[in-house]
Amino acid sequence: MPARLFPMRPWAHAGMMVLALAVTASLHAQALQVGTLRIESTPSAAEVELISGRAGVTPLTVNERDIYPNSYPDARADRYGTVTLRHANCEPLHHRVTLDDLKQGLHLRLACTAAAPAPPARPAPAAVSTDRLPPVPAPTMPQRRLRQLQVLQELLDEGLISPAEEQRVRRRILQLGDDTKD
Fold first, then answer.
1. Could you give the CA distance from residue 56 to residue 49 in angstroms, rounded to a whole number?
2. What mean pLDDT value characterizes the chain?
3. Cis, peptide link before residue 59, omega less than 30° from 0
4. Rounded to the nearest 10 degrees, how much is the dihedral formed by the CA atoms of 61, 63, 67, 69?
5. Which of 26, 52, 103, 133 is the most buried (most CB within 10 A)?
6. What do you get for the CA distance between the two ends of the chain, in Å?
7. Do 39 and 105 share a domain, yes or no?
8. pLDDT at residue 101 is higher than 70
9. Longest dimension (CA), the chain
10. pLDDT for residue 37 is more than 70
């Protein structure tokens, strides 16, 4: 039997296995960590709106899951992955968050005008009856599915999901569409 250069005791094998498992678990935990996004604006104190609604005012740090939630109302699907900033005397600013934004943070400049003088007071208009307004049609299933596929493609293009994840979700969206035809 050949002699070993470094004889190992049985407990040393177990120790090496525990170390290997700890390193692997640590790497997986880092991969699953959800990041944050620092949002700053010029001018500061701009109201920040995400898919879930008002999040606060700049400067603000938000969780990545607040921008890319796993579930959200269909009516707000167009806001998925976006940040909207509002400030008095400024035009609202809509920004689609990219992977670079998540790494570097956001500093957005709003287009503002000088404060306009207040218009002269006018009498309030008569209340409009909502009975006469036509109802806003809900998106049809094909429109909704198309929007979901567009957002999915944007996530893939931005590198926020892998091609395998994109294919899995795409199949699911299309399969759900086939189920509704029956």
1. 8
2. 76
3. yes
4. -160
5. 52
6. 71
7. yes
8. yes
9. 104
10. yes
Query: Strand order of the sheet with strand 106-109?
Result: 60-63, 36-42, 106-109
Residue 14 tokens read as 């177990």
CB 110 within 8 A of CB 89: no
**What residues have CB less than 8 Å from 99, skipping those under 6 apart?**
158, 159, 160
Query: Does residue 98 lie in a domain region?
Result: yes
Q: Tell me the C-alpha to C-alpha distance, in Å, between residue 11 and each of 4, 16, 17, 95.
A: 17, 9, 10, 56
Domain of 174, in residue numbers: 139-182
Q: Which residue is associated with the tokens 């094998």? A: 13
| Paired residues of 95 in beta bridges | 83
Averaged over 90-101, what is the pLDDT? 91
Each residue of 103-160: pLDDT tens digit? 898 999 999 987 544 445 555 555 555 455 566 566 677 777 778 888 888 888 888 8
What distance in Å separates the CA atoms of residue 39 and residue 80, rounded to the nearest whole number? 17
25 occurs within a structural domain: no
Q: What tokens appear for 92 in the block?
A: 């609202």
Residues 103 and 168 in one domain: no
Report whether pLDDT(45) > 60: yes
Which amino acid is residue 97, in one-letter code? Answer: V
Same domain, 101 and 48: yes
**Residue 52 maps to a domain:** yes
Comparing 72 with 176, which gets the higher pLDDT?
72
